[in-house]
Amino acid sequence: MYLNCHSFHSLRYGTIPVADLIPLAAACGVTAMALTDINTVTGIYEFYRLCNEAGIKAIVGMELRHDNRLHYIALAKNRSGLGEINRLRTQHNLAGTALPLVAPGFENVLVIYPIDNIPEVLQDFEYIGIRPENLSMLIRPEWQSKLDKMVVLHPVTFRDKPEYNLHRILRAIDLNTLGSKLTPSDYCSPGECMVPESELLETYSQYPSIIENTNILMADCHFEYEFKVPRNKKHYTANRDTDLQLLTRLAQQGLIKRYGKGNIDAEQRIEKELKVIHELEFSGYFLITWDIIRYSNSMGFLHIGRGSGANSIIAYCLGITDICPLELDLYFERFLNLNRKSPPDFDIDWSWKERDTILEYIFTRYGREHVAFCGTNVEFKYKSIFREVGKVFGRPKEELDKLSGTSMDQHDKNEIVRQIHKYGMMMEKYPNQRSMHSCGIIISEDPITDFTALEMPPKGFPIVQFDMHVAEEIGFEKFDILSQRGIGHIDDAAKLVKKNRGIDVNIRDTSISKDEASCNEYLGRGNTIGCFYIESPAMRGLLRRLKCNNYKVLVAASSIIRPGVAQSGMMKEYIFRHNYPDKFEYFHPVFEEQLGETYGIMVYQEDVIKIALHYGGLPAADGDILRRAMSGKGRSKEALQRVKDHFFECCARQGHPEQLSQEIYRQIESFAGYSFCKAHSASYAVESYQSLYLKVHYPIEFMVAVINNQGGFYRTEVYVHEARMSGARIHNPCVNKSEFETTLYGKNVYLGFMHLQGLQREVAQNIVTEREQHGEYASLEEFIYRIPIGIEGVQLLIYIGAFRFTGKTKNELLVTARRIMLRFTPKSIGPMLFPYAVQQYELPMLLRSPYEDAFDEIELLGFPVSVTPFNLLRTSYRGDVKACDLVQYHKKQVKMLAYLVSRKHVPTKMGAMYFGTWIDANGEFFDTAHFTGSLKEYPFKGGGCYLLLGTVEVDYHFPTITISKMEKMPFISDPRYRESDAESSQTQEKLREDVSMTHREPYPQEQEINLPRHKMVQSK
How many helices (H) and strands (E) does the chain have? Predict the structure, then answer.
């Protein structure tokens, strides 16, 4: 009898999770019901599966509304009917048009109109929904004649009174209004909760025809769906066999290109992979990916294929990846095996500047009716919950800031706050809005609207209404089309080298960069600022501790820095064993046989699987469950527990002592978080080498590329500093030299207009376009007449020195600009028949302090360019020790003066601590540790220079200063103000620092890890 049930996927309306709706119905004796969420089919597949498990007939559909007005309810008679509903909703979603009040001519859909929106003539498939409160109207003759078209309409929106109140709060949030200002039309009636079906039938007992009509309607609906059946596009060519033929030919061509002729191992591996790919019917998936890469290459784009796809030699030969699986002993089964029922998934990165071009090709090449982005549900989170609920209760901004910015135990204890807490906690994890998955693309065999309606988010590509987990469950595997700035660094740097030096660097040829001698030297020193994945303080410290000097160690480093390895203590143990390979024993032969390359330490996901199989004797199916749990796909505590129990049973059957098995499983279990597969680490390492090669051999071009791609781990200032340390001469923006992005002329780097705070993008681009079309600007006066710009924009350019080519001081230029613009507006700009005659005036001598420029730069760019921050200090002291000498001061106290680059928050059992990264007066980087005790008395006070006192600890070649005292050092007074003005000391507060927070449990201490370094009791 329930034809209009809402779940919490009726965003900011329904309050019942789908998983809770079915048990609720079963308890009420419901045997058939319909899920009709508002304008969405997000929950129908979970609903259908759970109904089948509960023995309830599932009917699916959609409640179609516009501007909160119910037009009608559409119920699918079958899967074709679902497609009709989806296409109707999609048409209006993508076009942004209003939904008509009357349904179109459906063929496989049943329509129920509310009593206030009945068309004059009802079609055969159309009905009138009678709510319990409408029954009293039916005694009137005009309604009696329509009884044969009436069905029971008892909507379900909430479970009980508290959820009814929550529903009203959600409505107020949706309408952005106070709860007290809601009107009855804004929210549902108080009776929209589920009651026992017998009670509902009793309500309609005087009208048996309505009950009979409802039963007939429900019996007419036969929606069925088969899960886990592949729904992706099946073939690239005409059929399965021609796909195999093309894939084989391409693989053979790539084999010769990658390995030359006569490589037996490679040939056998290709033959083996082709057999599995064909048997699983995944040739089309490989070919579609190859086609996308082929288009990318034709456009001159750089891509990085990574993830488990790098385990495939076919992917390597097709150019999808650049990782040789033979070199790293990567086994294909990690990527694809005969037990796998879903397609493989390739992760491919492009530059963030080029990704949209790739997406446009995919949508055009494979048809917009077959391509869409995966959706994702953006949930109400802690901060947004209390802010949103607080607004409904009318709390002022100051209180909202406190509610959202502090923990619950710090909130006031009044009744209103208790209500905010109560309803806020109820809606935690509720979906708030649908958004676009960051990278997942679906390419379907059948039109996507057969499965879902589509929506159009602001980014301009349609999305499905379900997330990646539902997509996988119903048979779709996504293509991950990602973007990252690291590729932009590499690609743009290579182009800059060509432009600036005339040298072609084939950076796609990874053989020139991987394990290149000078690159390895930079790696071992941690000189990797700007390089993909290896530039963070933690990673640079790890590289120094390992004295990393080759590709395979870098691959391992890329994985052991991950939380799963670090938290288990295996990162610390790997560092020890790498530095002291003769001071440990493999505590079981399997670890030496299977993990000799990583000193018996589980570093990759594959390592865990190897141990589970070779030590525990688990079957391959359990190994796959373990792998998926580690990768975060389908993670299930229940499944893990079953595998754990089975692991110990298998170990016992093989005679392994329980203590040994417990220790091994403890290490395995630590990987249930986030760790890399080896192929993924290898892909990252190759990209790291590519960026490092450019940094080593073309450092200025590389740093300019990093700056233009808006950096990486650090802010722009750090990369500008690194460019200067590489020999570049850094110049402020100039109207005759600069472009929107930073520009390079030989070794002269002109900062781009994009870095000027306050300069409109349109004005900045216009300056460049006008200069390119009509030549350089001869004077400030000519610039003003050629560029539409206000006095504020002109002054900003003057202050940053953009007119220094005129030879006039900033003060002279400011006077000139104000004189001109008092009688001039940008509207008067137009073509000039004769060049503007510059009137010369004799101006008084206007003196200016050289430090004024530096303070202008801090204000407009965020950092000084003409001097270093050290030049602005009141003190001439520069510290007793420099960063390059720290390794010689182990266990000694040092005093240093340094500029703060970044700090990293780390939770410990004693409280929060920070790791700091600094630059000394020579421009060299070094690191500090700040424990809870010293932080209380000597906290960080924002960006700037600090005097540091601490003790040096050299840990495996890497020095860190444990800080006991520190104090921020004052700058000279800003000479642009009188020394007595408050502003004279405020400019330095604009200097920034990079702060990163960590939200996790504290890592265990070394004594708590107790990873064995000696043989344990062996098998009986």
Answer: 37, 23
**Through-space distance between the first and last CA atoms of the chain, rounded to whole angstroms:** 65
In whole angstroms, give the CA distance from residue 116 to residue 139. 17
Q: Are 474 and 227 in contact (CB under 8 A)?
A: yes
pLDDT surpasses 70 at 805: yes
The Cα 536–Cα 823 span in angstroms is 53
* Token code pair at residue 181: 């200002």
Mean pLDDT, range 98-104, rounded to an integer: 95
- CA angle (196, 200, 201) in 5-degree steps: 115
Secondary structure (DSSP) of 908-954: ETTEEEEEEEEEETTS-EEEEEE-HHHHHHS---SSSEEEEEEEEEE
pLDDT tens digits along 17-64: 999 999 999 999 999 999 999 999 999 999 999 999 999 999 999 999
How many CB atoms within 10 Å of residue 566? 21
CA 552 to each of CA 520, 644, 792, 928: distance values in angstroms, whole numbers, following the listed order? 11, 31, 55, 29
Closest CA to 556 of 517, 593, 599, 590: 599
Distance CA 267, CA 165 (A): 67
Q: What is the pLDDT of residue 998?
A: 74
Identify the band that residue 406 occupies on the pLDDT scale cut at 50, 70 and 90.
confident
Q: pLDDT band at residue 850, thresholds of 50, 70 and 90?
A: confident
Determine which helix (DSSP H) or strand (DSSP E) holds 379, and give its type and residue range: strand 371-379
- The amino acid at residue 720 is V
450 in Cβ contact with 84 (< 8 Å): no
Instruction: Give the model's pLDDT for residue 459.
Output: 76
Is pLDDT at 354 greater than 80 in this prediction? yes
Here the tokens at position 849 are 């302090």
Distance, in Å, from the CA atom of 67 to the CA atom of 582, rounded to the nearest integer, reads 73
> Could you give phi then psi for residue 988, rounded to 5 degrees?
-65, -20
Name the packing angle between helices 537-546 and 551-560 (round to 10°).
Answer: 130
Query: Which residues touch 566 (CB under 8 Å, ≥6 apart)?
Result: 560, 1003
Calculated CA dihedral for residues 716, 718, 723, 729, nearest 10 degrees: 80
Q: What are 160-198's pLDDT values in tens digits?
A: 999 999 999 999 999 999 999 999 999 999 999 999 999
Who has greater pLDDT, 477 or 846? 477
β-pairing, 463-464 vs 303-306, is unpaired
pLDDT, greater one: 913 or 998: 913
Amino acid in the structure at residue 532: F
Check whether 838 has a pLDDT greater than 70.
no
The total of other beta-carbon atoms located within 10 Å of residue 148's CB is: 12
18 vs 466: CA distance, rounded Å: 13
Phi, psi (5° rounding) for residue 870? -65, -30
Q: Sign of the CA dihedral 258, 261, 262, 267?
A: positive
Of the candidates 127, 146, 130, 148, the one whose C-alpha atom is nearest the C-alpha of residue 221 is: 127
Q: Which residues contact 539 (CB under 8 A, 6 or more apart)?
A: 528, 533, 557, 561
Distances (CA, A) of 832 to 782, 785, 822, 903: 11, 9, 20, 54
SS3 266: helix
Question: 3-class SS at 641?
Answer: helix
Could you tell me where the DSSP H helices lie in 632-750?
637-653, 658-669, 678-697, 699-708, 716-725
Per-residue pLDDT band at 360 (split at 50, 70, 90): very high
On the CB side of 661, CA atoms within 13 Å amount to 24
Q: From the CB of residue 49, how many other CB atoms can be counted at a distance below 10 Å?
A: 17
CA atoms within 13 A on the CB side of 869: 29
Q: What is the DSSP letter of 870?
A: G
In this prediction, residues 320-326 reach a mean pLDDT of 92
CB 351 within 8 A of CB 295: no
